[in-house]
Fold each of these.
Amino acid sequence: MLLLNLAKIRTAHERFDFVYPPETFAADRETFSVSAPVQLGFDIYKDNDKFHLVGRVQTTLEMPCSRCLEPFTTVVDASFDLRYQPRTDADDTGEREVQEDDFSAAFYDDEQIDLGQLMREQFYLAVPMKPLCQEECRGLCAQCGTNRNKGACDCAPDWEDPRFAALKALRDNARKEH
């Protein structure tokens, strides 16, 4: 775990800069893998037991294209502005209206902020909903699985989806009746 010990922060404002090797994030390989060193830099502002982190995380992620499944890389340059408060300050006593500050609030335990979790959140926010290797990606052939970006296949272009067979039969019957 990549923990920031808050007990060591003595002044109202401090600056931190870290570089982590890609292997530090090996557990996140389901959606993406980190393929370049991760640069994390932030200013931390202390207000009693509350902390405000403003900074940036930069790296390169590798992930599969959602159309052709080929791996590709994307650059992450994400800024963040988060406010941390002790978990004991969280009011779980009932319903309340969500405030604007709630969207940038996070909690810490045991005088430590998990920087690994902060960076992973930024990575997931940077991953596109539909990752594409290129905007014009042609994907895979639905019949033979050939990557259509690399070449054509010999499959018949008039393939019909069997799930629509019943609708096609209704249409054909309607045409015969007229």
Amino acid sequence: AFNDSMTDLYSKVTSADGYIFTSPVYVGDVNSLMKAFLDRLLPFTTAYYYPDTKAQFKETLRYKPLGAIAVGGGRNDGMESILHTFYR
């Protein structure tokens, strides 16, 4: 486990009533900061992929609403792939 600024965000993520993620299209996907943030949410998703494990934040995000906004320069610019990334 890391002890960095993301550790402080875990409590904010768990206490939120819902989420809205947004990103511009960068080479067909989210920007690097958003990708790093999403990757660091692994403690929340581990229990989904491995239900027998004791994930630190198991079930804390379940049933919370999520919205996603993707911004691109034109039609079919990769916005659909960003939305897919957010909803994984």
